[in-house]
Amino acid sequence: MAILEIKNLHVSVETEAGSKEILRGVDLTIRSGETHAIMGPNGSGKSTLAYSIAGHPKYEVTEGEILLDGENVLEMSPDERARAGLFLAMQYPVEIPGISVSNFLRTAKTAIDGEAPALRPWIKEVKEAMTNLRMDAAFSERNVNEGFSGGEKKRHEILQLELLKPAFAVLDETDSGLDVDALKIVSEGVNRAQEANNLGVLLITHYTRILKYIKPDFVHVFVAGKVAEEGGPELADRLEAEGYDRYLS
Amino acid sequence: MEQHTHGAGVPLQIRSERLRSANPKDFPAVTIRDEQWRYLPVERLEGLDSEVQKFAGSLVGFPVQDSGNIVPGSISLPEDLVAANVFALNDTKFIKLVSADAPELLEIKASGTKQGLQFFISNEKFGKNTLVLNHTGSGSLAELIEIEVADESDLTLISIQNLEDDSVITSSQFARLGRNSKFKHIVVSIGGKTIRVVPAVSFAGTGAEVEMLGAYFANGDQHIEHRPFVDHNMANCTSNVAYKGALQGAKAHTVWVGDVLIRQAAEGTKTYELNRNLLLTDGARADSVPNLEIETGQIEGAGHASASGRFDDEQLFYLQARGIPEIEAKRLVVKGFLNDVISQIGLPDLQEELNGIIEAKLEGKQK
Question: Which residues of B, range 181-220, sit inside 8 Å of A by Cβ?
């Protein structure tokens, strides 16, 4: 049982007009196996939370803590965080020319595990995971994210989630830009990863439709850089009906 | 970052009209006002433009002959002052290639300053060969190579510039391709303070194919310059030029000027040239200039592409977010990027050695 704690987190970004505070005291606790949905209007700071957990250098933590099983995550570089068991499925995965998907996956797996995976079981595992995500075998010879469609990029993110087996995954608007079929396939992947590894999930989304496929245990409504309301799955139903308007007045 | 510049600032010179001469006195002094020297400060030549002595380094491997049934200058006379200085030594080594199963290797180990070395390589009719010229050692060396690729023959020529940090090498390489011949030219430039390679191809018959590939990696204060030229003077020939380079460090500078000329007679030509640069750090400078001159409309296709991009913070973050440390992330990207070219050498030991050097450079252990 692992635990990820976010305590009074304040995060700023540098803008042309100077430093701007985006997160204004976020508290969240996620345990293994739990699914937390973070919902909120555009600009509420959802993605900033995702990047801050992963350690993107653009985001400066000015106050508060992130602890993974009591270890101070904020002192770790992004690669150290990944090796400690954190995973971020990105909203806009970047293209990396010159590196094939298969080479990338093997390198990441080796970095996370501290040793290279045994070749034959690894190839089998990758193949299986790709089949589950309805990804063509030729995919693994393409360069990372290069020329991928929106749906392919998201599948590739979830493929990594399944193969790298983190303790906690932050899914940053993984549902955006997916049609219903792709949304189902991707959601099944997340559910498989959760079942296989008792994964803790922080699901960041603007819309409720992905929650039909990935059932949250807890829903947190994010407004202006803070958690404005918290509850169980019923809160998502209410947001579906009422929208975010009542938080914004 | 320099993007796709079309020779701005200096008047475009039609490549085919460039002076060719055996006599150094025919060439003006080297200056950045001259298009072919515009990116290279003359000090970097360390006197190769004044005069050169006979090569005093060593040639190890494939046996060269001091004479043969050849006429130096018959493929092309020198196009610049440095190459003319070499020609004036009147000392051409002859490399005669007859069909061999294994690749031939010649190590050209430089030693001493202001030296000149001239080769004439002949690939006989129907011959199929691979020759590696591995330039090592230290000093300053000007090289002039003529390459005869006979009718119906097939030659892969690999020129590796891997000299010591303090060294200077310039190499003019003129190839002439016979009817239905195939020529693959691979350049790998990694070691040396100043490297300048000017490979030029023209045709003696129709139906020939040339592929010109290059990989380079500049760091520290290295200046690495390549100026491939394809002169489509015959009908129905094909050329494909692709150079890829990585740069690291605020003073690293690379130059790629790719000239393709399609003459009136060259109907049915198909050509493509490409240059890509990957900048790993701020301040590094990659100049990239593709020039395409077309004198006939009756061609199959002609295109060019040039792009210089940064290995940026987002790419680094993406790889780090998957557990890959920064240095390994860069290694992965650069090796992947250059491997398109390196993997085509076809000699595993040599490829491994080159990849090892690239890694050492990435880690700052080697310039």
Answer: none
